[in-house]
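User: Hi! I have a protein structure encoded as tokens and I'd like to know what sequence might fold into it. I'm fairly new to this, so please keep things simple.
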């Protein structure tokens, strides 16, 4: 039979583990090993606590023998994980008539009375489980003591226990049982604790922070929890014990460090203050962590009762990890692992400073992180007007639609009454890096009156100053205190360390010069997807496009395209120049043609005028071009095959731009990508035409250049036929948005209507447009990759759909041997860190 581990005095060598005795016991052992003045402590392992809860007698007498006779004790919970809660601490066990009298002599009558009263109260409430209302006296008078003792006796039919062994037995039993209670179970389960999570208990000699001389208790830490910068913070309360300093403000509060506002511990007891600083430094170096130290002073004598990791914001996490690595306390690899990738998004945007006041008027879903201050506006037109006046604004809409894009661009933040994580507002805001809160259902919007009524009837009008907190999912009245984005040297340094370990490339999807600049700023290794279609929506280009679509013969078509050519060339020159020679992957024209046609009668008339054709003809041709299912219609390479001149014009623009930037010393090998391919022949046709264009440009300009041709794999058939396709492609980039749509037969634009019902009922574990479906879509990716590489072992493989920036997709791509992922510019830092984590975890044997 295995021996059940029993309670033990914590010594430097005793076998104490967080997994058997809980984190607190383990932490105290570490502090003892560091020679910190920790009072004598006995640890009870999970097994012992479980036995007590199930009715076995608590080993109180044996525990008491480990201490000097007559000392007072505390009992504290020690679960495996700090977050899992546990019963409240019990202080001053051992107080009875006799020790009360003794205490009065050593510490004074008032202190003895106060401690005794507190002990009777907490014992009655937490151990004997009596009605708290009967024990609510706050002034520790002799009369209050007598009343409390009498109340105890009346309620329990026995006198208040005088025997310390009995007090301790009952305390241990009550705390052990509390851990098994339903509420406690549910609470810790919500925090991720397993069903059988154990509780350890630590019994510690009391350090009394009351009495003569400098006495009190406090906590101290050496970095700021919000910024992570070195700073002594904490609290000290004279004549107090336990965590009083944290819970009881007011009289007796003394600053830790010298402070013009009042007395400080530094002045009152300089040697104690110095000791605390020294303990902090020892903990930091030896525990390799910033710790918050809980201490008690008894007549100037310092005791360390506990130390916990400093709680910290995401930005503080990064700062602390960088500082520890720079000081050689931890390695760069460990620093990188200490910040989880998703925490980075908090650093990329301004945030509401948690230290400031928050006047919340609406709550919703935190759809896009960051925070912004601006004046309320209720329409996109007002948002644009604000922007024109140079004023910041927060756009509030019931929900947004494509017409609101300009308004969203003009606003600093977006708040909607309806919608979820994949609603229009949420998706666009994340792309723009704008803070956004959606589904704020407690709001009543009254756009006509230009006001909103918040829960509780509070009215806010257009022009009122508000703060939108997209990280917390809240809207606050007024201008909140803000923290600037933390894209400082430490941020860059940290990510450059991550890059040292990363073994998969990270590029950005960048369609505009601003995107490209952001991508470069975040050290993307190139552009993985430049969607060229946006370049045609500007007014002057739109007219040329429409002329091209309506042209009767190739000659007319070519003349319209000639007008578009210089504009496209400029686009690419700009893009190549920004990216300074890094790879740029340009996707040829993809959207359905009808998107370029006017939809209103007015628009059709304008087009008829511009083209000098009868309205009836324009209307008829526009109708003929409309499709039942444009997403599966004439788009992508299908356009390139039917109207080859568009791709030819784009290729010419790319080649000429390559020559132009080459002349300025920027050498680019552009990557040209063909979208929506499903058959090898499509690639063959486009490839032949592009080769002809390249030959013409080379001949005409007398300059040679190289380029790469690749295929965007976003139809299931392209995955299955990747072996053929790779004969004509130097790279395959998986467009997981369309591939998800086509694998599921699920419209990208309509899925939002029923996605939540599907996820709630467990049909899909997650929205597959958000989290890559590894089982289905993933299998197609693997088939495509394997067949492609079988044909061409040096084939470059990547993912460029929205999934590219998710840590789970990156893990998948890495396992499958892909070369890079490409994601929206703001997700590049997260992707770099996630990729580094994967490599490091594999190296450490943590995950495969
Ligand atoms: C895709 O389909 O995954 C993709 C990146 O292209 P788009 O979203 O432009 O269709
Ligand atoms: Mg696509």
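Assistant: Happy to help. Inverse folding works backwards from shape to sequence: for each of the 848 positions I chose a residue that suits the local structure. Here it is:
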């Amino acid at each position: 039979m295995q021996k059940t581990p029993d309670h033990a005095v914590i010594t430097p060598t005793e076998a104490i583990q967080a997994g058997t005795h809980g984190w607190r016991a383990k932490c105290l052992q570490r502090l003892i090993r560091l020679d910190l003045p920790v009072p004598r402590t006995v640890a009870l392992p999970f097994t012992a606590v479980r036995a007590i809860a199930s009715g076995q007698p608590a080993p109180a007498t044996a525990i008491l023998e480990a201490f000097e006779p007559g000392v007072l004790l505390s009992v504290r919970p020690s679960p495996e994980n700090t977050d899992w809660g546990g019963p409240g601490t019990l202080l001053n066990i051992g107080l009875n008539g006799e020790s009360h009298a003794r205490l009065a002599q050593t510490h004074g009558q008032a202190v003895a009375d106060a401690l005794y009263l507190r002990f009777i109260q907490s014992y009655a409430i937490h151990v004997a489980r009596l009605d708290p209302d009967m024990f609510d006296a706050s002034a520790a008078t002799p009369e209050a003591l007598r009343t409390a003792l009498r109340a105890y006796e009346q309620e329990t039919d026995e006198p208040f226990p005088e025997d310390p062994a009995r007090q301790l037995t009952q305390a241990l039993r009550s705390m052990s049982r509390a851990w098994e209670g339903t509420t406690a179970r549910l609470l810790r389960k919500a925090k991720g604790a397993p069903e059988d999570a154990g509780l350890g208990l630590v019994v510690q000699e009391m350090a009394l922070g009351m009495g003569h001389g400098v006495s009190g208790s406090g906590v101290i830490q050496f970095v700021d929890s919000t910024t992570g910068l070195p700073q002594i913070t904490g609290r000290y309360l004279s004549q107090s014990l336990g965590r009083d300093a944290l819970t009881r403000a007011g009289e007796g509060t003394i600053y830790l460090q010298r402070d013009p506002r009042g007395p400080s511990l530094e002045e009152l007891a300089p040697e104690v203050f110095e000791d605390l600083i020294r303990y902090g430094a020892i903990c930091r170096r030896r525990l390799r962590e910033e710790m918050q130290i809980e201490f008690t002073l008894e007549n100037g004598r310092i005791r360390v009762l506990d130390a916990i990791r400093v709680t910290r914001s995401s930005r503080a996490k990064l700062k602390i990890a960088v500082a520890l690595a720079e000081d050689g306390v931890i390695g760069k690899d460990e620093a990188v692992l200490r910040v989880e990738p998703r925490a980075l998004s908090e650093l990329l945007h301004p945030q509401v400073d948690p230290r400031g006041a928050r006047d919340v008027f609406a709550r919703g879903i935190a759809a896009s992180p960051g925070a912004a201050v601006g004046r309320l506006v209720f329409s996109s037109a007002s948002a644009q007007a604000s922007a024109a006046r140079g004023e910041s604004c927060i756009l509030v809409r019931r929900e947004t639609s494509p017409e609101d894009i300009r308004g969203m661009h003009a606003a600093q933040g977006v708040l909607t009454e309806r919608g979820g994580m994949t609603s229009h507002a949420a998706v666009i805001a994340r792309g723009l890096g704008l803070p956004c809160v959606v589904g704020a259902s407690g709001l009543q919007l009254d756009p006509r009156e230009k006001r909103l009524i918040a829960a509780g009837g509070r009215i806010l009008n257009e022009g009122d100053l508000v703060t939108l907190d997209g990280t917390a999912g809240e809207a606050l009245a007024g201008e909140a205190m803000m923290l600037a984005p933390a894209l400082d040297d430490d941020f860059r340094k940290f990510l450059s360390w991550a890059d040292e370990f990363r073994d998969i490339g990270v590029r950005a999807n960048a369609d505009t010069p601003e995107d490209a600049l952001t991508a470069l700023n975040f050290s993307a290794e190139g552009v993985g997807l430049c969607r060229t279609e946006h370049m045609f929506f500007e007014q002057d280009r739109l007219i040329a496009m429409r002329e091209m679509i309506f042209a009767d013969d190739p000659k007319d078509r070519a003349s319209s395209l000639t007008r578009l050519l210089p504009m496209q060339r400029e686009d690419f020159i700009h893009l190549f120049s920004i990216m300074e020679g890094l790879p740029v992957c340009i996707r040829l024209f993809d959207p359905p043609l009808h998107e370029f046609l006017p939809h209103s009668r007015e628009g059709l008339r304008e087009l008829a005028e511009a083209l000098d054709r009868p309205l009836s003809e324009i209307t008829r041709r526009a109708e003929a071009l409309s499709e039942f299912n444009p997403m599966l219609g004439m788009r992508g390479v299908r356009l390139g095959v039917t109207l080859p001149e568009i791709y030819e014009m784009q290729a010419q623009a790319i080649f000429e731009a390559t020559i132009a930037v080459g002349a300025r010393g920027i050498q680019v090998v552009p990557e040209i990508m063909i979208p929506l391919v499903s058959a090898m022949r499509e690639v063959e046709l486009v490839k032949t035409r592009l080769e002809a264009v390249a030959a013409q440009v080379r001949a005409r300009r007398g300059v040679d250049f190289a380029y790469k041709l690749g295929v965007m794999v976003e139809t299931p058939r392209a995955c299955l036929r990747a072996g053929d396709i790779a004969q004509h492609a130097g790279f395959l980039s998986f467009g997981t948005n369309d591939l998800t749509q086509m694998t599921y037969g699920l419209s990208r634009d309509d899925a939002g209507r029923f996605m939540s019902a599907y996820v709630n009922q467990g049909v899909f574990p997650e929205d597959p447009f958000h989290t890559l479906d590894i089982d289905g879509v993933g299998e197609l990716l693997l088939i495509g990759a394997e067949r492609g590489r079988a044909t061409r072992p040096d084939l470059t493989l990547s993912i460029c759909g929205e999934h590219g920036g998710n840590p789970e997709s990156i893990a998948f791509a890495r396992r499958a041997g892909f070369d890079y992922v490409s994601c929206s510019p703001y997700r590049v830092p997260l992707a770099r860190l996630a990729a580094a984590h994967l490599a490091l975890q594999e190296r450490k044997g943590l995950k495969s």
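A useful reference point when you look it over: The mean pLDDT is 91. Feel free to ask if any position seems puzzling.
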